[in-house]
Amino acid sequence: MADIAIITGASSGIGRSFVKALLSSEDCPGKVWVVARRADRLEELAKSSDRIVPVVADLSTPEGINIVTAKVKDENASVRYLINSAGMGKRGRIADRPSKDISDVILLNCTALSVLTRDLLPYMSQGSRIINIGSTAAFMPQPDFAVYSASKSYVIFFGRALARELKNTGITVTTVCPGPVNTEFNSLATDGATSEFKGFRKFFVADADKLSKASLKAARRGRTLYVHGFSQKAFHLASKIIPAGLFLKILY
Question: Which CATH superfamily does the domain covering 3-251 fall into?
Answer without folding.
Answer: NAD(P)-binding Rossmann-like Domain (3.40.50.720)
